[in-house]
Each structure stands twice: as structure tokens, then as C-alpha cells.
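Q: How do we represent a protein-ligand complex in a form that can be generated cell by cell?
A: Start from the inputs.
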Amino acid sequence: MHDYAARVFEEQQKKAPWEKEFLQSVEEVFASLDDVLNTHPEYEENCILERMITPERIITFQVPWVDDNGKINVNTGYRVQFNGSLGPYKGGLRFHPTVTLSVLKFLGFEQTFKNSLTMLPMGGGKGGSDFNPKGRSVREVTDFCKAFMRELFRHIGPDTDVPAGDLGVGGREIGFLFGEYRRLANRFNGVLTGKTVGWGGSLIRPEATGFGAIYFLQHMLALKNEEIAGKRIAISGFGNVAWGAALKAVQLGAKVVTISGPDGYILDEDGMTPEKVEYMLDLRASGKDIVAPYAEKFAGSKFVAGRKPWEVPVDIAMPCAIQNELNGNDAAALVANNVKYVAEVSNMGSTPEAIACFLEKGVTFAPGKAVNAGGVATSCLEMSQNAGHTSWDAETVDNQLRKIMAGIHTACVENGKTADGLNYVTGANIAGFKRVADAMVAQSV
Ligand code: GLU
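Then emit the C-alpha cells for the protein with glutamic acid bound:
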């Protein structure tokens, strides 16, 4: 690591050693910046690294809500407005029991570079709450969303900060949140993305993260003169992102053999079909957070309790669930089974040990901030449609998404060249970082 980066990282470690996830994401980016910092002394002169790891604003608030027994519950709500130098803060809201400030800081930090990679005008932000939607009734989730927006509405706006969904926040929750915003602010505008089509949502937005990931994967394969048809793919998760990735992969003739949940994974040696992919939506709608019923419904598949899908022999692995879901042991198992490509779709889905293992063993690995950027990119297309009081057809949105993913892949290749090939981690970090850093220098303090 460059001296300047090492110094700033060490100071941050001393300041908040408990922010493990945040430190992990900072270390990964800083480790990629040697050449950039050597050739751009103005970054150190402008204290860019210190400023880059300090959120511009953190809003923390109380979210009181009433459960179905009439009992009052309290959760903590957050919005981390990380970096606004490229545009309004942009990034999702996560409702999940694992949410802490460290998790939201890592997500906001990653989001800043991801949004930069899209080349669209978006700053980086992230928010959410430690609220656990699992097993909660629709009324309880509605009440929670309204209480959350009661505080958040004064901090957001189409030119200020535009939240969207993430884990635990889908189209339904965005509807509840938007309704409350509209009532409180007396404005109907593009303040949130991921809205339902018909009242401001964009076609292809639900599919965009997964579709974009597969478009990116196609470029990774093309560089090695390979194609996706016929490849065996392991996917983890069964939410919106896993669904979109499985849908596009199956459309393109790949064999998707796994999905997973907190209860274990499904091994489907026959490969998923469009019907099986659609069943993922029913699984999610059940609110039980389990995948086991898939094996009861589709003969030929089996449920493996309490394990992760990385022990299954595949050509391509695509983590689509949560941070650090793929560790060093999982990576070693994939490598032992001759995995060739890992396209990370979850944000920071792989631990540093896993990434080191892939790079060392010659597995082509691409990081989440590049692979999953299609989601937020399409959110920006939704913002454009809202600002222009119009809506585009699916083909227009999909074509733009394809172009954006191609651009991100090219940026990774151009910035990730190494003596012995290509490093997507370095490429994504450098390309994402430079655009933000240059904007910060240009805008002064
Ligand atoms: N939560 C998604 C992400 O991690 C989408 C954010 C957005 O659309 O603003 O990028």
C-alpha cells in the first residue's frame, strides 16, 4: 500500500477499530491505489483520502412503530450521505437485523465508486435500519416504513439524495415509503427509485442488477473467447438480485444449478427453467426466508440444509446474497472443483482471503462494485425519466443498461492491466476512484 494510503488507513483503524466491514472496504480500495497516488500528487495535497473515507453527513434517528399486539417497538434509522461530488447522493435502504453504522458506511463507500463507474451523475449514499422484516405482517411493515419516512423526508429530494431498495426493501416497501413522502412533502417527484411501473417506476429496474451482472459476465467471458451458453453457474441467495441473474442466465442458455437461503441451498442438477426462476418470487413472497420448499416442488432437485452452494462443481460462481458470504474456505472449495470465473454480485460478497485465493489460483474474479452496478445505473435512468416527466419502453432501458455495463467492463480492463494480465479489482477501484477524486479536487473544499 502507498505510504499516504497506509498512513490514512492506520489513523482510521485507530479512530474506529470496531467498524470492521468499513475498514475492510477501505483497505481493499486503498491497496489498489499505488500507481494513482504516485502519479497524482494533488490527491495528497488535497487530503483526498482522508475526505474520501469521511462521510459528508450521517443522519441517525429513532423509528418508533406499533406491532400487531399493540406494543411499541423502537429501531434505529440511518442515512449515510457519503460523497456528493458527482451528483445527488444515491444508494439503497437496507432493512436487516445485521445493519450497523459500520455496514452502512462500507456500503456507502462502495456505492460512491460503483456510481462513479457508471459514468452517470450520482454521488454515493446508503441507509436503512436494523429492523427485521422477517415474519412481520404487511401492516407492521407499512407502519415501520411510514415511521422511517417521517424523519427521512426532510433530508432527501430529487436533487439532494435519492434512496432506493436493498435487502429487505423491495417495490412494496418503496411504495409505502413514497406514499408517506408525498403526504409529508406535498410533492410528487423522483425522490425514490425502484417505484412500481405506472406511477414513476422504470421498466427493467427490478431485473436490472441481475441482468447487468450477466451482461458484465458476458464481457468477462468474451475476453477469453468463451460464451455463457452451456456453462454451469452457482448462484447464492434467492432475492431480487439472484432472480434477475438466474432469469438472464437461463435465457442465454446457461445451466443454473443452485440458489440458497439462510436455511441452506438447493442443488438442481437439471438446471433452472424460467418456471423455476419465477418460483423464486413465490419463495420470497412467503416471507419465511427459506428455500427448502423448492425441492418439494421440483422433482430432481434437492435441498442441502445448513450449507452454502460453493461446494458444488461449477464453471462460474455468482454470490448474490450478502457481504462476506464467500470466505477463504469456500474459495478453496470452488478452486478445487475448477471454477473459472467468479462474478461477485453482492456488495463485498467475498472476504479478502477469498479474493486472494482466486487471484492466486488464476480464477477470473470481478468485484461487486463493477458487476452489480446495473441496478443503480437503471435507478439513474428512472431519475431521468421522472425528471423528464416521461417513461421509456423496456428495450430503450435495456439497451442503455447494456451500454453502461460494457462501459464499466472497458474501464476495468483499461485500469486493471497488470504485468501478467488483468485484475478487475484494481481496475474497478482505480476507475471509480479517479472520477470522484478529480471532481473533489475541481470543487475544492
Ligand atoms: N441497493 C442497490 C445497490 O447496492 C441499488 C441502489 C440504487 O438503486 O440506488 O447498488
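Residues 46 and 441 are 7 Å apart (CA to CA). The chain is about 50% helix and 15% strand.
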